[in-house]
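The material for today's practical consists of a large collection of protein records. A record pairs a protein's sequence with a compact description of its fold. Instead of coordinates, the fold is spelled out as a row of discrete tokens. We will come back to this pairing of sequence and fold again and again. Here is such a record, shown just as it appears in the course material.
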Amino acid sequence: MTETSATGPERDRIEKEIVIDASPERVWTVLTEPVHVGKWFGQGDPAPVDLRPGGTMLLDHGEYGRFPTTIVTVEPPRRFAYRWASAYPDEPATEKNSTLVEFTLAPAGDGTLLRVVETGFAGLSIPAERLETASYESHDGGWAGQVVNIKNYAETGSTEGVTGGECPDAGTDG
């Protein structure tokens, strides 16, 4: 896994890359279909997904809240992006209260290179009580875990036994 993170005062961009032993089509399915999103990201239940620009994907992050993301880009099986208001559970994500999460998939031999980029922390106002779970640092560690979850789920259909870096909910299988 390759990790790059912004340094300095802005700390606005998180980027994680991982090679997955599965086709881009399989990885796309894992990232966008309700039953799969609920496994690698959520609490195991299908995540409601209206897969179109302007649609909503509801991410259930357990004790941290439920987040109605706003889908920005849908280009199967290469690019998927959404806005995530992680500091504001239950609030729809807008350009003013959210970060932008972008997934890019590219063939890599017989597998897929997955790149996840999250931007927009520098301009985001995060309430003090949400800093632990919505800050740049929290997401940097969280994506380190989630890309491992995505890899293992795409390859095996399970996240059981996966610790996934620093993501508190990584390794759950519903």
